[in-house]
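Hi support team,

I'm filing this because I wasn't sure whether my run with beta-D-fructofuranose finished correctly. The job status page said complete, but I'd like someone to confirm that the output block is well-formed before I use it downstream. Pasting the exact inputs I used:
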Amino acid sequence: EKQTEEALYRPNFHFTPKANWMNDPNGMFYLNGKYHMYFQYYPDGNVWGPMHWGHAISKDMITWEEQQIALYPDDLGYIFSGSAIVDKNNTSGFGKEGVSPIVAIFTYHDAKSEKAGNINYQSQAIAYSLDEGLTWTKHENNPVISNPDIKDFRDPKVVWDDSNKKWVMALAAGNKIMFYSSLNLKEWKLKSDFGENIGAHGGVWECPDLFPIKVNNGEETKWVLIVSINPGGPNGGSATQYFVGDFNGNTFKLDEDFSNQLKKENAIWLDYGRDNYAGVTWSNIPESDGRKLFIGWMSNWEYGQEVPTFKWRSSMTVARELKLKKTGNSFCLQNSPVNELYSYATKSISKDSIKSNKIEDLLSESDIDFAKLNLQFELKDLKSEVYNLLFYNKEGDTLSLGLDNIKNEFFINRKKAGKVDFSEKFAYNISKAKVPETFEELNVQILLDKTSVEVFYNNGEIVMTELFFPKSPLELFSISSKDETFKIENLKIQEFKF
Ligand code: FRU
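And here is everything the job wrote out:
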């Protein structure tokens, strides 16, 4: 029996619009118990088109309610990616009767001008909301930053720099990031740029995010700069790299230790899978919470418009918490699912210690739905050559992932995980991530939904996020290695109920 597209592919716990095309998350902010997320949206088709900002609200970043469209294109252009902040002190003057405005900062993309052969068709603009982000008024003097003859000039991300008491904007400008600052969100001064000769440059730089973060959750603060790049990702197409450094209000200076890491790796990626792009962080998270919260577009420009869902196209990753870990001289921006996810856990199995693939029996006896699954365990004595985890169905679709100890790599192989022929670019490779030198043991976490897998090694030190489209639900599991006596500890299997 043929399953409907909804039943087979609509994710259980990843945001998708009810219908039509979505790409980047935009303008995320928190206010009064609600997480807001806007997104690049084309309401009239299931491929990219004239961009709007769609809108969704969540109490916990896990289950979302789609709202009316927040921003429509107009004479100045399509509404491209950007950010939003809560202007508590009304620095912009948009506030009224004691209500602090929420200010969105976005890119206008003037498609007519582009078509006419100009290069200065992208500029930065602002809009404000006085009703908690539901409706927006565009500023009457847009754009606030006009184009300085740079072709790809977009995706403003604004943060309050508390040490220097001003707004700071990171903006993608071709092959670098430009930093601007402002006191009122209307007048912006260019301060510096970063990145022309550093990091990955296989494609255009997009969707930056600059924010302060505590090192090892202690006293020391560093600034992290996230930069999405398309193409040029570690496994092809779109991906997101990051840099660790210091920001003095005007310039971003790479940390020396991080700079040494870059000498070895060339680029360091937030996610080594093929389907986590254009992600940025939430603004206005209360100090009492203090987390850096992130979400990404769970797709890739190489095939995003061809994936085999038709009513809607694209979903977001699970929302993640970012932490900056330093071990010795080595920084790592860990990202792992937000804790809110676990409040949906129902059935749960845990075991202290298991040998070889008895976990297979455990899962098949348990009637857990693999399309809302959290699977966690520690692999001990990493002596086997290859650890291979398989999620599969009776039709033979098989998603395989794990660790190759000979090549020193993690891998995800979706070549046989169902439909792949909608795009030549979807499964031309097995995706890989190098195992860091500092790894001593392996803690594995896997989130599985109907069409996505998110794998977090050692609390998100290495992450791989990928899509797959099985012909029927994956409902079988096995783990194997050449050495059948390997050991698994602290196994936990949870099914979520939403
Ligand atoms: C990234 C991106 C942004 C741009 C938007 C357009 O995926 O290309 O740079 O603002 O998508 O939809």
